[in-house]
Amino acid sequence: MLSTSLLVEQMLLGLMMGGIYAAIGVGLTMIFGVMKLSNFAHGEFYMLGAFLTYTLVSALGSDPYVVAPLAAVAVGFLGIILNKLVFLSLYRELREAKGAAAFFFQDLRFIMLTIGLSILFVDLALVIWGPIPIAIPSALTSHIIKLPGGFSFSLARIMTFFMALASLSILYTFLKATKTGKAIRATAQNPSAAALVGIDTYRIYDVTMLISTALAALAGGILGPIYNVYPTMGLDVVAKAFVVVITGGMGNIVGSILAGFLIGLAEGLGGVFLGTEYRQVVAFVIMILVLWFRPQGILGGRRS
Amino acid sequence: MILEVNNVTKRFGGLVAVDDVTFSVKEGEIFGIIGPNGAGKTTLFNVITGFYKPDRGRVLFQGNEITGKKPNEIAKMGILRTWQIVRPFLGMKVIDNVLVPIYVKKGIVRGITESEAIERANEILEFVGLAHRRDFLAEALPQGERKRLEIARALASEPKLLMLDEPAGGLTPTEMDEVMDVVRRLRESGMTTVVIEHNMRVIMGICERIIVLNFGRKIAEGTPEEIGRNEEVIKAYLGERFHVGG
Amino acid sequence: MLGITKDLVIKDLKYYVLAFILLLPLPLAGDYVTHIAIMIMLYSITAASLDILVGYTGRLSLGHAAFYAIGAYTSTLLSMNLNVSPWIGILIGGILASSFGLILGIPSLKLKGPYLAISTLGFGVIVQLMLINLDWLTRGPIGIPNIPPLPGGPIDLRIKSSFYYIALILTLLSISFLHLLTKSRIGKILVSIREDEDAALSIGVNVPFFKIFAFIIATFFAGLSGGLYAHYIRYISPAMSALSESINILSMTIIGGFGTLIGPLMGAALLTILQEVLRPYLEYRYLIYGGLIVIVMKFFPSGIYGLLQFIIRKVRG
Fold it and tell me: Cα-Cα-Cα-Cα dihedral of A29, A32, A38, A41, to 10°?
């Protein structure tokens, strides 16, 4: 009863979604790799990116794919503001924590604080934009591209995938080739050593937060034309983001990218074989398998 | 021989931390393990106490094989250890730090009444000189007292073999003397002690026999005097100041 | 039992009795207040049970609501499909919840920090998905209405004030048990695990055993209170296992002050009352709720109880 074309179509759709998961997961894994912090508000940057894109589209009349990067940068700066207001002081206390229990305390404190932020942001979005899901209009949604093999996708989907891919590639190049990128990797490996060789680690933390939140926001913005935008969309995605991070290896950027696509693909397949209701479970089953058989992730943890 | 370590090897990836080490400890003696930083001393401790499984070799305690046993099982058999960077239960009171091992040793539900447990805990605190700190939180204690607390905690489990990882580390000479005094008094009551130490004053002061590790291998074994004259040992420590005076 | 000695009980008995007496006249304030009080009590049990796991043993769980839901659904289904008395149903609900606690507890032994947190989160989501999808059993996302109330013999337990007293007794029994547990030898062993797992191992503590023990106790009481909830509100749905509900419970535990058992009780009271007080503000409700969590975590990470203790110490000089 299973047509190959349905299978391939779902796999392609899953892969496209995977690009989004990768973009969200990468930011989260960077925060963990560089600052050893688990940011539970991460999904909200994704959500704010989507809403901000919508607002800019409404105000400027331009296409979301043009405007999303702007929204992303804006959210990125929000990330830096949060860094300066709350995150960095908690980070300092985490670094100074002596003993397993003190570390657990500070870690829990940070997790709870970001949970509070998450609640706050969701309600903020609710107040500003209302609870009703919004579709971001784009000219590209109506353009249908026909691919060989009989598959047709809207240009919007393809653009979303392309932009996700592009931003990940830019990030990868940035981390590999630029001075700041190398500084980020150095700080992730050993913050004290990085500081000793003259790296301004606190600036690096700001840059990392900027990149992380901007990427998530971009993912939200470019997803808007395809799926609806609503205040709790971040909550629906944050658990999966963590699954991506764990599957790829905490702190491992390439790992998160791979894991994102893997999970997107697996979800697509899962949807075909298990039915749409069980699609959501796929990501968690993968996580259970990873935690059970290879807890350091497919590529190993704590590297950039 | 209360402890026999036979051909123990432990690797981490490509690095051989402990390389075919063999030695035995006699009951009642104070035995030292020395060597430059990174020589594999703490790794050896971790293998003996069950925190690492050796890649090769065996460890026997009182004739029984303990290779690969879990740390808590080994502790219950009578090997107790302290840590290089001291780790008492900081969020608990000093007395509770000592009570927990007593409960575990004697029986959590039955086996010892609360008043007996407290009495025993007080005795141990007296012995290490911390009785006046009974109700303080462990995190309020200075380094030297934390070290003694850790020894007290180990003693509360009624060890037959006590393993001390750099007990003098980070201590002032006075604090060092206090710790050495505790170890000597323990020996008088028949305790077997294995000590990892950097500080030559401590080693020369209390150890009866010593082995020297370098890059994971045993390079010498003997009395402190013999070791002090051993050329290989002196070479190994070249680049480090070889204090006999502390 | 379980290392809780007679002396411990006698020492604190006066507090439990005092609390009981003080809370007796509450229903005089009317049905609305009584309802809030009942909800606070149910959440107290859940938050306190989570504290055993998070605060005392140091194991972060983001899926505690799942056990609450398991208890609720078990008791509901047993009473509606098999005519089991809700009293027994609630007990079985607790036992089944702790069985799941065991199932989750064993593989999570080797996990710590964010890995543990996310796997418990995943568990909570999976339970919710199962509750939604196994609709032949659970009636799916619409939930189950018209759950039979607790039978009280001659007393009608649908009357809030009557249910209140049952809830009060059960809550006090549960909380006092948990409180005594934390003061007992086992409580100290759990704290030693939180403080330093490896050091605890090195003195002979069977750390895996006690981690599982903490899981089982915590999930049992969560299941118990879930069952009580089911026969009080008399409507349940898969949303009970949602991540947001787990976070709600965790917030109570942490805002109140984790690792103190009393803290979570305060947290449960504060957050439940807050949610009621803020109800007319509808959409702004969670702005304040979220903002409160952020402020407390930034400035008073030891929670309300921690703040209270700090103030008392300063006043004493």
Answer: -50
